[in-house]
Design brief:
Layout lengths: L4 E4 L6 E5 L8 E6 L6 E6 L3 E6 L9 E4 L5 E8 L8 E7 L4 E5 L8
Antiparallel strand pairs: 1-2, 3-4, 4-5, 5-6, 7-8, 8-9
InterPro entries: DYNC2I1, WD40_repeat_dom_sf
GO cellular component, one term: cytoplasmic dynein complex
GO molecular function: dynein heavy chain binding; dynein light chain binding
């Protein structure tokens, strides 16, 4: 609820990493690991911002932020086929009106 993210290992109750205020205090609505690239995850906050984290590139801050204009995004889901190396990764965004928007991620964050 405060925008902090914690990365845990299954064998410990303490986080390996913790990023406080990663969304400028906005609650996190959804967080999902990339299906095609293990070090990348996506965060959706309550202000309809999507943050892309690539832990191999920068483990302190997100590598990109995209604001979805005009309408609140209520959830997201990642689309991709982990067994294929074509680098296609998409994000399905569900908006408050019920509309679904699909966007594709740049290959540099999708390639294995």
């Amino acid at each position: 609820s405060d925008g902090s993210i914690r990365l845990h290992q299954m064998t410990s109750e303490y986080p390996l990493m913790q990023w406080n205020d990663s969304t400028n205090g906005q609650p996190i609505i959804a967080l999902q690991w990339a299906l095609t690239r293990p070090a990348v995850f996506f965060v959706l906050d309550a202000s309809s911002n999507i943050y892309i984290w690539d832990l191999l590139e920068n483990d302190l801050l997100p590598v990109a932020k995209q604001t979805i204009p005009s309408e609140n995004v209520v959830t997201m889901a990642l689309l991709g086929e982990p067994e294929k190396t074509n680098g296609l990764l998409g994000i399905a965004l569900a908006k408050e009106s019920g509309q679904i928007d699909v966007q594709y991620v740049k290959k540099k964050w999708a390639l294995p």
